[in-house]
Structure formats: structure tokens, C-alpha cells
User: What shape does this take?
Amino acid sequence: MSSKNIIEKINADYIAEANEVRSSLLSEASSRADEILSAAKQAADAVLAGAKRRGEEEMRRAALVASLDSRKATLEAKRSLVEKVFEKVTNAIDSFDDDRWSSFMVNLISSSGAEGNEDIYVPESCADRFSSLKIIDKVNKGGKSFKYAGTTDAIRSGVLISGPDADINCSVDTLIADWRSVHEIDVSDILFKEEE
Assistant: This one.
């Protein structure tokens, strides 16, 4: 299974959960907007008591500010939701069962473009799992001669492939970032399509 298919599967698995989080965040943003509008109206009413014309102008300004604040709060909530979706994807990969995680790691290394004789580094958090599942042995069955070289703190998930000429960052964060740069608008459209 390709890493793209894995990401798409994970994305599909978490869209429902993301929609629930989205509804909660949008409700919270709407509530905040209502509070902002209420405060703005109270301020405008106080000004009206002193001078109706000046008060009307202040009310218009306050409504405009409240509208802008509401939009800003809504955008912040949406941005936060998108961030949470991509963070959940990363966490979901890290919590795959052993078979799925092993298959993902083997595919990640095999499709990295590495020649096959490089050193493999993993974050300390998954070093025991990487070794116990014999990921290197599985990758090397295809005629490669990768070598497990230990742990690195340069990534938090995935692998770092180090060769004499270059290093290949196969971290989950990099994989997600690459995928996100192409599909973030699609994810946003899925999450917020009902609002159009």
C-alpha cells in the first residue's frame, strides 16, 4: 500500500471525527462572536444616550469591528481545526497496529529513492518497535543492504536515511507536510463544505 493511499485512508477515517471537532469549534466561535456583538451593542447604546447621531456612527463602527472580530474568530477556529486534523493523521500513523506500522515503514523506506546501502536512523520513541518488527530485514529482502544505525532526535516519527552523498528525510512530519502542501485546500473544502 503506497504512503499516499495510507494517508488517504487515514484522512477518510478521521474526517468524521474532524467534522465533530469542526462543529464544536465553529459553535465556540459563533458564541464568541455573539458575545462580541452583545458587548458592541451595549457600548453603542451608552453612546446613543449622549448623542444620537454620534451614537449611530459608533454603533456602525462597533458592528463593523464585531463583524471583523467574528470573522477572525471563525478563521482562527477553522485554522485550528485543520491543524488538529493533520496532527491526528500523524498520531494515527504512530498508533498503527504492528502489522500496519511495519508495512508503512517498509513502504516508506522502499519508496524513498535511496540506493539501498544507506544507514537508517529512527527516533528513540520508535526504536524498540522498529527493531522488534525487524523492519530493516523486511526492507533488505528486496535485495537492499540498509543498515540500522541507531536513533536520532532530528525527527519525531518515521526514518532518516543517511548516505555518503545526502540524507533523505522520511519523517512522518515531512511526508504529511508534503501531502498537506498539495491537499490542504481539499481538506478544508471537505471540513467546511456545508458553510457555502
